[in-house]
């Protein structure tokens, strides 16, 4: 029998549903073979049944999809129609690979990885899937024969609004690498109707609007309405008497929501393996209260549907209100419970029981968002599968591992106990018991140490009783990993210091990486072609050989070709800046790029202050030989993060003044690109000359934008923070513009009572910049707009913006000086690319597989 388990079709009518599923997803050419040969038990995928990969066969398949699926003749098709038809044709090839894979692995049992993440920032998929399948040239020819360019189809695809920043993009890179390394895996998340938000800048102020990425459908996904899990909230816990006189606690939720599955195939490099991203959509079990509707209460009849479906409407709803906090908790429990129910169902079907779960399954928690998995897995094992508590705890600890992504206290989630008790009463009972047994063990080993007990408790008492989700994830995991060497060391020394003492060896490091398929081969084909010419085609499969570029760094001819690729990419970005930000720039200028989520610790504000200082200096000293600079900002601020929104407004105000001032003579241009997403990054990253990685030292866990930019030949200006530390080791610190306080020095400054006025007193430039911004030079309509912002820099200066200002300006000057020496700049750019081979997500995932998950890796 064909092993259909990963698609989740089972039950009393499994055979019929399997056939229906196969008929639905199979390419037309396979249907006859399927119908005639399924009864015999043969998998209908011999070589004679396989889809052809010639340009003519692709052309015919696209035309069939356009005509018979979309119902449009070519003469009436628009770009979006061509994209949909093309995507559906490519999807057939992906599904065929999946069916072949299922046939080849039939009867072979192995450990599966389940990656739980609230975000999967996958971006556009057409180019990735075509590239990984090796169909790029055939598709280009096929579309050309239909009178369509591949860019017409590609650019009509919307970005999937399933994430915000680095956390979600990392999850997407990791899924692609798991497929490329043939690691059987599922990604689990939420299918957001509108994602985070669409960012519009109105007079420099961020405005949030819903993303409409699903308005025309999603051709990559398969709706799985038969795969749904019931998720409970509220209600009460009752005790049931068992025949042996014992009691079993039973949760009786007061509200139910259905989690309905949507599957997106994730194809690996060269089409070797296909995994599944399974996203859950929230649906009300009864979408319409017919009795209320018939009474005339038409709004009330839909209330349950609206409440249920709000769970999968948007990513990160504002938690400024109690209702917002409750919705976030509902989201996190919703997708985590659905994922665990799904994988347990698969476990029972394949193994017959849940007892061997830890041997067959590895569950990776991507940050604290799915940390409720520890309590939920215990509930499912103990309450639903009648596993004894001690055995259930051993299974849970053996299956679960947790990735920490932040040292920021506000990002290590905690939930008010009253909210948890009301929304998840059974889980609170389980958390209390886990905590009691955990603290009993700590007390036995460390008697009379109340400080230690308070530190490692799952319940915090500092600002009202709250459940500490980071502590819960730590206690319930067999491994806890940081995402860069520095971050992991700081975890051991700070937020999890006491846990590290209690459980030595549990904290390990797994430095992040990026998918070279997406962030080199797809977004920078010019550089990819040059690398293949220089190093051979093996570089596409073995990025570590990029180190051989060091031998070519001083070669003038290679430098020239490297620079020509960069120039073409800069011209593409210049077009985007003109079209989306209304700013005309010179591609010959130094493109200084800072693209990331807007947050005070990422210090976009420091970059803006330098921009003001550079602007004032250019006006005051027009006789100097200035390096032309284009400052590019992009990123979103959380809807409730008012200080971050004010920083965006300041950047836009500075841009307006600078770009309109003729005295600068076009030597400085500033642009803030709205609605930053993966597709925008794919244009910006290959074009960047200077990569801004200027977070306050000790506060950036890793960063992956730093890796993408350096891989594409951008030089890094940055602090020794996150993975930039390791990049300096591989590239060479002398090839970067490093500056500022170290993580230890930041801690010392804060402890000493540092104030920004101390920096202002010793820096005339900083004093002038703060006076200009605070005095309304850039906000003539509201002179006091930035008064509080400037006051915070002069006071506690928590993020060390004032403290690092002079050092940052000096590093910027070094960059500007080097850029005027183009041969030296080009040599350094080549060396940056040469040093990035280690930062592949394939390497990261191989490390996870060997050292945390215990699964084999394809070679």
From TrEMBL:
Chain segments annotated as coiled-coil in the UniProt record: none
InterPro entries xrefs: Glycg_phsphrylas, Glyco_trans_35, Pyridoxal_P_attach_site
CDD domains xrefs: GT35_Glycogen_Phosphorylase
EC number of this enzyme: 2.4.1.1
Catalytic reaction(s) noted: [(1->4)-alpha-D-glucosyl](n) + phosphate = [(1->4)-alpha-D-glucosyl](n-1) + alpha-D-glucose 1-phosphate
Keywords, in A-Z order: Carbohydrate metabolism, Glycosyltransferase, Pyridoxal phosphate, Transferase
Pfam family, one: Phosphorylase
Top enzyme category: transferase
UniProt keyword annotation of Glycoprotein present: no
Domain of life from the UniProt record: Bacteria
Cofactor: pyridoxal 5'-phosphate
Family: Belongs to the glycogen phosphorylase family.
Function: Allosteric enzyme that catalyzes the rate-limiting step in glycogen catabolism, the phosphorolytic cleavage of glycogen to produce glucose-1-phosphate, and plays a central role in maintaining cellular and organismal glucose homeostasis.
Protein name listed in UniProt: Alpha-1,4 glucan phosphorylase
Organism: Roseomonas fluvialis
